[in-house]
Amino acid sequence: MPALIPTAFSARILWLGVVQSREAALSSASVPSLRALFAGPEGESHGGLTRLSCSRVTKQHRRGTEIRNVRQFSIVSAEELAEIAQRMQLDHLDPAMLGATIVLSGIPDFTKMPPSSRLQGPDGVTLTIDMENRACTLPARVIEAAMPGYGKRFKRAAQGRRGVTAWVEREGVISVGDEMRLHIPDQPVWSHLDKARRGNTGLAETT
């Protein structure tokens, strides 16, 4: 039986961007289309088949360990981006300041999509959702530099609305205006999820 269910939900791509050098700046540059390769978006500084582990996974890997790169794409929804801006008391929040790769519109409660869901484009290009992209202070610094006094508002405003990270399952071309269809895992929610989240294993960083 199929492991993934094609749904009636789809989203239109409103904006695309690439971070050309994250050492120079987090901000992404707008592009009309991009090639999604197994190593990530072509020309994207966050690409690569592997990456060095960061603070998000220190319970599993010591910082700086080479791991599989499931953060090739940063995807946000236009609806949630507008909500973040409203909570920050801004008329508009430029996705480039967040280092976003894709801005989509059309899928409700986008950030809470099930991990391992797929977004599939017209030519078959397929992105696999890893998980929620947690709000952090890096975009706040970019926002503060452009709009003094607003950067400190970002992290709280973006909690639960920051979008998701994703990696390429099937190569192809992604363009502004494309529709991407949502496919979700044919798997019920684990009945012990709440208990597992409440539990404290007490495990230190792994070596």
From TrEMBL:
Coiled coil: none annotated. One of its GO terms (molecular function) is pyridoxal phosphate binding. Residues 24-183 form the MOSC domain. SUPFAM superfamilies: PK beta-barrel domain-like (SSF50800). It holds the Pfam family MOSC. InterPro entries: MoCF_Sase_C, MOSC_domain, Pyrv_Knase-like_insert_dom_sf. It comes from the Bacteria. PANTHER family: METAL-SULFUR CLUSTER BIOSYNTHESIS PROTEINS YUAD-RELATED, MOSC DOMAIN-CONTAINING PROTEIN. This is MOSC domain-containing protein. It comes from Pseudooceanicola spongiae.
